[in-house]
Amino acid sequence: MRGEEEFEFERERARYETNTRGERGGDDAAIGETGIQRRRHPSPPPSGGWDLDLDRGDQGEEEMGVLSRPEEVLPLVKLRVAAGRIKRQIPPEEHWAFAYTMLQRVSRSFALVIQQLGTDLRNAVCIFYLVLRALDTVEDDTSIPAEVKVPILKEFHLHIYNRDWHYSCGTKDYKLLMDKFGLVSTAFLELGQGYQEAIEEITRLMGAGMAKFICKEVESVDDYNEYCHYVAGLVGYGLSRLFHAGGTEDLASDSLSNSMGLFLQDLKYEENSEKAVQCLNDMVTNALSHAEDCLQYMSALKDHAIFRFCAIPQIMAIGTCAICYNNVNVFRGVVKMRRGLTARVIDETNTMSDVYTAFYEFSSLIESKIDNNDPNASLTRKRVDAIKRTCKSSCSLKRRGYDLEKSKYNSMLIMVVLLLVAIVLGMIYANIPA
Fold first, then answer.
1. What GO terms are given for molecular function (predicted)?
2. Segment (H or E) for 399
3. Distance CA 305, CA 120 (A)
4. CB 3.0 to 4.6 Å from 231: which of 46, 163, 368, 427, for a disulfide?
5. Which residues contact 164 (CB under 8 A, 6 or more apart)?
6. Cβ distance 34 to 319 under 8 Å?
7. What is the DSSP secondary-structure string of 242-279?
8. Contacts of 67 (CB under 8 A, 6+ apart)
9. CA neighbor of 231 nearest in space, from 197, 268, 196, 194
């Protein structure tokens, strides 16, 4: 880092070491959240686990804990510097400026993650995200009659070619996205043909699947799995096709691509006492069935930028499974990985060894929480064991020490120690002759 970036980095580090109160985020995005919260949406939204939920919750309270976890300070500083850099890199063209500004408004975390990618692929993934966001906004808007909503969902893949098309629905930032959707279409039409075809195909399939379940209730596990394929698995299909269109990756199989999307699926439930926790555990166990496919998918990636783009959300997904498994607090408020741990994952994920290590450690955390009285205990243990075996067979495990619990160190005590160190250093420097 040089010049302004170096100054900004030092300024942010000093701010974290002396004042851990941060801004309160406002990301209302619900795609693949690493924070689990109750909501009325009866079904998981599309786009899998793209969002890392860096913008949610009581940030001031969380960052007070940074002092008790010194290993998380530097990654958090890097994360803030990167977030600030994104704001200065918004393209000047109106349609691209709208696309990237809107992306930051609906998901600052995803806007950060896609910076791993090269310009052309980053533009394609940005538009892919916004198109699916818009599609999801139509599906979610309960004020739209079914006879109006179903045709829009089925024809949405055609609307993305029309610069003049827009449909007013949704609320807040999502309403703005829909009102000015023509700018997204304008950006879409500047993408390469391979990118356009991939986005159109997935939009068509997802729109048709959503339309099907507007007219049909989810009444069985098979129904649920089918719906999840439409709104999550297809995201994996789409990303694989975009990577292939960029010319840097072989086209992954549909099976592996589907697992990549499904493993990032949201976990949201309404409270229902002990049965709710058992249902939650069942869903986590179901998600774990895709983990080995995800590891295989990532191990085949060639481009380092694409690898990081895929690996970071996948690690966050299994981390979220670990924190949510057998956790009744999921039904009492927001449950999420702390920002410091998220920042560490982003900073430390560079190779498959890092991925294997994270999957092994988070799987071990799930294993430690298995209740033998849970109806799925044996199946959960079987799937965790399979993940751990795969990771161990890589012979590349490291020791990260990822954990989800509160620090054993008292933040106030750490602050006192730091203050004393500062005083001692001040006295030492005061006695050094000029």
1. squalene synthase [NAD(P)H] activity
2. none
3. 13
4. 46
5. 182
6. yes
7. HHHHTTSS----HHHHHHHHHHT--------HHHHHHH
8. 20, 411, 414, 415, 418
9. 268
Among 102, 88, 91, 79, smallest CA distance to 29 is for 102
Q: Which residue has the higher pLDDT, 150 or 232?
A: 150
Pick the closest to residue 84 from 124, 60, 112 (CA basis). 112
- Structural domain total, the chain: 1
Residues contacting residue 336 through CB under 8 Å, at least 6 positions apart: 33, 34, 35, 36, 53, 56, 57, 320, 323
Q: From the CA atom positions of the chain, what is the Rg in Å?
A: 22
User: How do residues 121-150 score in pLDDT, each as one tens digit?
Assistant: 999 999 999 999 999 999 999 999 999 999
Q: Per residue in 399-421, pLDDT tens?
A: 887 776 655 555 556 566 667 76
User: Are residues 250 and 224 in contact, defined by beta-carbon separation less than 8 angstroms?
Assistant: no
DSSP 90-124: --SSHHHHHHHHHHHHH-HHHHHHGGGS-HHHHHH
Residues near 361 by beta carbon (within 8 Å), at least 6 away in sequence: 400, 401, 402
Q: Is the pTM of this model over 0.85?
A: no
Please list, in sequence order, all residues whose beta carbon lies within 8 angstroms of the beta carbon of residue 260, skipping any fewer than 6 positions away. Answer: 48, 236, 239, 240, 252, 290, 293, 294, 297, 310, 314
Q: What is the mean pLDDT of residues 424-428?
A: 70
Instruction: Write down how long the chain is.
Output: 434
The secondary structure element, H or E, covering residue 63 is helix 59-64
SS3 category, 15: helix
At 51, which amino acid appears? D
Residue 252 tokens, joined: 């992954």
Which CATH number covers residue 97? 1.10.600.10
Question: Whose CA is closest to 342, among 122, 56, 27, 148?
Answer: 56
> Could you tell me the residue range of the domain that residue 25 belongs to?
3-430
Joined tokens for residue 245 = 């269109």
CA distance 261 to 238: 9
Does pLDDT of 394 surpass 60? yes
Q: How far apart are CA 273 and CA 265, in angstroms?
A: 23
Exposure class string for 372-386: b at 16+ Cβ within 10 A, else e: eebebeebbbebbee
Q: Where are the beta strands (DSSP E) in 196-340?
A: 335-336
Which residue is associated with the tokens 């533009």? 123
